[in-house]
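User: I've been trying to design a sequence by hand for this structure and keep getting stuck. Would you show me what you'd pick, starting by listing the structure so we're on the same page?

Assistant: Good idea, let's start from the same input. This is the structure you sent:
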């Protein structure tokens, strides 16, 4: 309990600052993502390795596009009644808030969870991010640098422009990879793109960089738009090995309320909650 209070003391401060900074920072959030291949080599890879990836993949044309692309993992193999709750923190002008009700509930109930965190959300909530990363119940993974669909040729999803070259795919993964590693001393092993869209070439590039690409089997809150009953109904329909996708950055949503309804029902059914770490992803 002590830990929870200290977390939310800083959360309140950070959230207070954050609403202001979101308003003031909006224009700069859309910073240019166009970088030349020679100036933006990823530091989590050696320059040599980055150049090899650029050379190898820029000749390849993607044949698949979407959320269910070859190589994307959507569930994990288990013989137990286990499911994984994953929460995206997307960042950006309308996505850098903190769902305190949600984090309070997860910590109070000690529910192991996996957080996919975007670089922009980390920038707006750095202190809180480090506190969350220090909580054993939270596994921190990579939700991209600019929150873009992962494409080698600029395809978009849900009106969000995707990356448009092999180099941009590499940067979208590695810049946030480096940020998280620096702040937490732990290197993410999983990646989920902004919008959860990919082409097949980009998924292979992610694997080359050393991250598995993880989507979901349960659409837990539909971009934080579900009512609490819709969240509850989506979650309680879980089967062993399901991965639920929800959001931790929309405090006005009913995600936390739906989760609070679903967790006791799932526990009664014999389910437990696991992180994605060391799971056999499929
Ligand atoms: Zn997101």
């Amino acid at each position: 309990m002590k830990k929870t209070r200290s977390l939310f003391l800083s959360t309140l401060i950070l959230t207070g600052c954050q609403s202001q900074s979101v308003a003031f920072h909006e224009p700069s959030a859309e910073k240019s993502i166009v970088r030349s291949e020679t100036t933006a080599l990823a530091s989590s890879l050696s320059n040599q390795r980055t150049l090899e990836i650029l050379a190898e993949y820029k000749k390849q044309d993607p044949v698949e596009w979407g959320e269910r692309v070859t190589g994307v993992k959507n569930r994990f193999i288990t013989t137990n009644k286990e499911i994984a709750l994953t929460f995206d923190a997307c960042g950006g002008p309308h996505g850098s808030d903190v769902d305190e009700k949600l984090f309070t509930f997860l910590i109070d109930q000690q529910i192991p969870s996996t957080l996919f965190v975007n670089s922009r959300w980390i920038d707006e909530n750095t202190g809180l991010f480090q506190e969350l990363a220090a909580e054993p119940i939270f596994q921190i993974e990579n939700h991209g640098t600019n929150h873009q669909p992962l494409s080698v040729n600029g395809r978009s999803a849900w009106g969000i422009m995707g990356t448009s070259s092999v180099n941009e795919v590499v940067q979208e993964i590695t810049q946030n990879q480096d940020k998280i590693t620096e702040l937490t001393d732990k290197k993410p092993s999983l990646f989920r793109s902004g919008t959860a869209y990919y082409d097949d070439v980009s998924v292979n590039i992610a694997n080359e960089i050393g991250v598995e690409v993880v989507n979901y089997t349960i659409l837990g809150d539909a971009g934080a738009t579900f009512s609490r009953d819709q969240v509850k109904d989506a979650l309680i329909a879980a089967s062993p090995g399901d991965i639920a996708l929800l959001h931790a950055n929309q405090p006005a949503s009913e995600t936390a309320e739906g989760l609070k309804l679903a967790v006791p029902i799932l526990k009664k059914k014999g389910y437990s909650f696991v992180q994605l770490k060391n799971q056999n992803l499929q």
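That's my pick for every position. To get oriented when you compare it with your attempt: Residues 88, 90, 143, 147, 194 surround zinc ion (CB under 6 Å). The chain has one domain: 2-15+53-61+71-273.
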